[in-house]
């Protein structure tokens, strides 16, 4: 059974239909990346999945009891509000000190627990936001441009971290990214969105699709050849997801 099914979702803000007839699924343990131009509805799609944007039509069907972790695109921390990282990680409530420490360690930032939120660098803040999402041991991580504002090494390190988290916990990842060469290297499947699903499938398939090339050109073909790594392997998943899978099963319908 899929972790998440979205069926024929439409979202409208006033008179403007931002998403039309969007369908997708996410399977256990896979990394699915959403690409699309500015204003194409990517953030709105993630917000609809977490219940923060209202669906005007269609259905969002998470697996029963699905634990979601959401890393928003940005978080403004009021510098006049003193709050430590550890306290920030407590905000959802119910997390033990060891849960928080484990999440920070998994997000590669164990040393940040006592730091003030307002004093973190962009890369540190992204790791803390990831840690916050990991506290609930999610089966599905939703990431909205997690490397926006990071330099290239910081961005590469963050994507490596996401892959490590996926390997260690078995969680699936549904993320938005503008970094096409990274997307093509790190994703099992890609969904190209422009208000509707233009095309979807393996990175190889999407990068050669005319709909994708009309939006992004053909430049990622070479990057794909350089960066794409072999996903033909099996991961042992922990109880968070409860099953093994193979990454070479990459062709779930998304439309
Ligand atoms: N709360 C809102 N009220 C009205 N319009 C909105 C709201 N949120 C988003 N929109 C509009 O919906 C459209 C899609 O926005 P969205 O943020 O989902 O796009 P995006 O693909 O994530 O863009 P970007 O790549 O620039 O982050 C835009 O035209 C935006 O102005």
UniProtKB/TrEMBL annotation:
PROSITE patterns assigned = ABC_TRANSPORTER_1 (PS00211), ABC_TRANSPORTER_2 (PS50893)
Question: What CDD domains is this protein classified in?
Answer: ABC_Metallic_Cations
Q: Which Gene3D superfamilies match?
A: P-loop containing nucleotide triphosphate hydrolases
> Which residue intervals define the domain ABC transporter in the entry?
4-219
Q: Give the matching SMART domains.
A: AAA (SM00382)
Any Pfam family matching the protein: ABC_tran
Q: Name one GO biological process term.
A: response to zinc ion
Q: Which InterPro entries match?
A: AAA+_ATPase, ABC_transporter-like_ATP-bd, ABC_transporter-like_CS, Metal_Ion_Import_ABC, P-loop_NTPase
Query: Keywords on this record?
Result: ATP-binding, Cell membrane, Ion transport, Membrane, Nucleotide-binding, Translocase, Transport, Zinc, Zinc transport
Q: State one molecular function term (GO).
A: ATP hydrolysis activity
Highest rank taxon of the organism:
Bacteria
Write down the PANTHER family for this protein, in alphabetical order: METAL TRANSPORT SYSTEM ATP-BINDING PROTEIN TM_0124-RELATED, ZINC IMPORT ATP-BINDING PROTEIN ZNUC
Q: What is this protein called?
A: Metal ABC transporter ATP-binding protein
Q: Which organism is it from?
A: Roseovarius spongiae
């Amino acid at each position: 059974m899929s972790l998440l099914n979205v069926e024929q979702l439409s979202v409208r803000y006033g008179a403007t239909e931002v998403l039309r007839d969007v369908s997708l699924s996410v399977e256990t343990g896979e990394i699915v990346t959403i690409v699309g131009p500015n204003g194409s509805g990517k953030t709105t799609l993630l917000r609809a999945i977490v219940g923060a944007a209202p669906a005007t039509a269609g259905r969002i069907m998470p697996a029963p009891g699905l634990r979601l972790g959401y890393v928003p695109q940005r978080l403004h921390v009021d510098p006049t509000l003193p709050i430590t990282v550890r306290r920030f990680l407590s905000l959802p409530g119910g997390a033990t000190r060891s849960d928080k420490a484990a999440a920070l360690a998994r997000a590669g930032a164990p040393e940040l627990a006592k730091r003030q939120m307002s004093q973190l660098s962009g890369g540190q803040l992204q790791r803390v936001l990831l840690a916050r999402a990991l506290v609930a041991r999610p089966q599905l991580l939703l990431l909205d441009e997690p490397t926006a504002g990071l330099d290239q090494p910081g961005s590469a390190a963050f994507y490596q971290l996401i892959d490590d988290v996926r390997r260690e916990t078995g969680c699936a990842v549904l993320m938005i990214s503008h970094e096409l060469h990274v997307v093509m290297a790190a994703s099992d499947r890609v969904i190209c969105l422009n208000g509707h699903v233009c095309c979807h499938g393996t990175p190889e398939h999407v990068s050669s699709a005319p709909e994708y090339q009309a939006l992004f050109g053909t430049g990622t073909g070479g990057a794909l050849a350089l960066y794409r790594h072999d996903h033909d392997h099996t991961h042992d998943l922990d109880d968070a997801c409860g099953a093994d899978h193979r990454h070479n099963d990459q062709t779930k319908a998304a439309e």
